[in-house]
Write a structure and sequence with these properties.
Radius of gyration: 24 Å
Strand content: 25-35%
Number of helices: 1
Strand order of the largest sheet: 3-4-5-6
Order of helices and strands: EEEEEEH
Shape: elongated
Largest sheet: 4 strands, antiparallel
Structural class: alpha+beta
Length: about 110
């Protein structure tokens, strides 16, 4: 190939890099693919981590918790949690986890139904 026959590379584009399997395209921001109409979140509402399942952003919210032990059922409809915006996996703060664990301990002391 002659040196002058190369296609000029635009200076404002993100360069691609070569890998063992050929050309690797630049990474795509998956947040741009989320559905429109979602409410804007402030930085305080965003946890500085990504979801362990899908790498989506994690925001403040609430999630239901339902437990069944020894024939008894316990349910909370809205426990404060960090929720993944993409797959809706819930992450609970230590305070909420301790509360749920105390409720489980109390359920263990109840007679079997």
């Amino acid at each position: 190939m002659k040196a002058d026959s190369r296609i000029p590379f635009p200076s404002d584009a993100t360069p691609v890099r070569s890998g063992p399997l050929g050309v690797v395209p630049p990474p795509v921001d998956l947040e741009e693919t989320l559905p429109l109409g979602r409410t804007a979140r402030t930085e305080a509402d965003l946890l500085q981590m990504r979801c362990l399942r899908c790498q989506g952003p994690v925001v403040k919210g609430s999630a239901p918790v339902r437990i069944e032990r020894n024939g008894y059922r316990l349910a909370w409809e809205a426990v404060p949690a960090w929720i993944c915006r993409r797959c809706e996996l819930a992450y609970f703060e230590p305070r909420e986890v301790e509360t749920i664990q105390r409720a489980l301990q109390a359920m263990r002391t109840l007679p079997k139904a």
